[in-house]
Amino acid sequence: MGSGSPPTSGARRPARGGKAVAGRFPVILERTPYGRNVTSFRDITQASPKTPKTRAEVAATYVRQGYVVVFQDCRGRYDSEGEFVKYLSEGADGFDTCRWLAAQSWSDGRIGTMGLSYAAHTQAALACLAPPGLKAMVLDCGGFANAYQDGIRQGGAFELKQVTWAYNLGLESPEAQKNPRLMAALKAVDIKAWFGSMPWKAGHTPLSLIPDYEAYVLDQWRHGDFDAYWKQVGIYAEGSYDRFSDAAMIHMSGWYDAYSRSTTDNYVALAKRKKGPVRLIMGPWTHGARSTTYSGDIDFGPASTLDALGHGDYDAQRLAWFDRHLKGSSLADPDPPVRLFVMGGGSGLKTPEGRLMHGGRWRTESAWPITDARLTAFHLHGDGGLSSKPQAAAAQPITYDFDPGRPVPSIGGTITSGEPLMRGGGFDQREGPTVYGSRQPYLPLEARPDVLVFQTPPLTEDIEVTGAIVANLWIASDGPDTDFTIKLIDLYPPSQDYPEGYALNLTDGILRCRYRDSWETPSLMTPGQAYPIKVTAFPTSNLFKAGHRIRLDVSSSNFPHFDVNPNTGAPEGTGLTRRVAKNTVYVDATRPSHVVLPVVPKRA
User: Fold this and answer.
1) pLDDT for the residue 156
2) pTM of the entire structure?
3) CA distance 411 to 409
4) Residue 71: which of 113, 9, 1, 139 has the closest Cα?
5) In this structure, are 129 and 169 located in the same domain?
6) pLDDT tier, 292 (very low <50, low <70, confident <90, very high otherwise)
7) Do 139 and 122 meet the contact criterion of CB atoms below 8 Å apart?
């Protein structure tokens, strides 16, 4: 898009009697690959949970208050020409769009941005270039701090949602829309069968019919090292924090969202650097589900939605933000720097919809991380215990077989865009007919020999854990490379509704061991040698009730959330052979594997 030509967009301006009102107005911009005129199911409210607002209805909320609203198709999507290159064109294109908007006769030069998911990524990308006129932002579940660690890769592993996202968006691509044969062929792709036939070869993947999409996904997959590829504008805000726009910002996400780490990382860095107010909101939601009371198979109650914070629905809250920072409204800012939802504390009963009532409550904070959280080490014991007391000196290591041909299935978590293979949220960690990769007789994951379980005794008092979760493990393998995963679980005791208890996943993490010392310069392992590693999980906030147990599961796969390590040391995304690895976790006093939990003390 040239700087002198308008964007491919839909612009709505204040009007009376069907005629545009003369004058200059602040502009609200959303850049999206999902169709500027396409209604999104995320635009529901608590008052209207089944009928989302249309794009015109969303725009009307702001137009009636004296704003120009612009919805723009990203390059190569829907009505926009050019080639779609995921993420990497959005910084420059967004900058050009802002410059064009600020120069229009109906613009007063002040611009606010909004949008969910990819439309949050586009905001962060353009803000990295500090475009003219940008004064206010609302980033909803997105805005890459570092896509190498959150969104494309994590801990060195590749997030396979990039494949399912590309396939689903390929169905909406201009090429498929204009070619009935291509559309029919894409719809005939059995993506579940393809995921069951890994590893893949270029030209022989579920994306082969849309080669441009296949090319960028394989490019992401095969860039295993943290090199210049990962430091481009659009996927690496960390590299641009100092020049990042000084606009007023809201960073919002959910504990079960794929971008919870990016959201909190961006808040921490930008709150320190920027003059404009920077706010953080963390709910109990999956991706974009701010007006929904449940995540996966667990419910938090009607007070858990964003609407329940008391400032009206989502559009009303955004409007108040834009009024303050685009129009200089005299309304005082009612919000503290941090608002977060502490999950847990509910009845544990089954709701009429069949979900576990986990409960929770909103709380305000002055900063993130929580200032009075105590980083507490819980040690892994050889008998399966998890305790603040160190392990005995002579404890034997624990060894298991990790077979990449039979990986541990992903059951919930920080997953988005994974349909039809996986979905995010909280679930009982038990295989079943709706869980991809499950096998009969559908046992709990803890029954698998390649899932190590460490848990506390039943708690004698409530314990709140809020913050990032880090496991410091001592490990070994008989191969040159392998993965280690962690999963933090709130283990409910047996009850009438759940006679076997309920193992509720809270957050998880992964590390590909070749990156144990450096993301830039990986190194293979010496078989049999013990190494200390750090596995970082996304942040969470949960109240473990008295009678519950805190549990940590350790394994070596989480599929199809992440690609499966072939245990051969082959370059990322290229190996066509696999081997079973014998993986070891040490739990003795000289090699004290432990997880560090941010425990928040009781408050008045």
Assistant:
1) 98
2) 0.95
3) 6
4) 9
5) no
6) very high
7) no
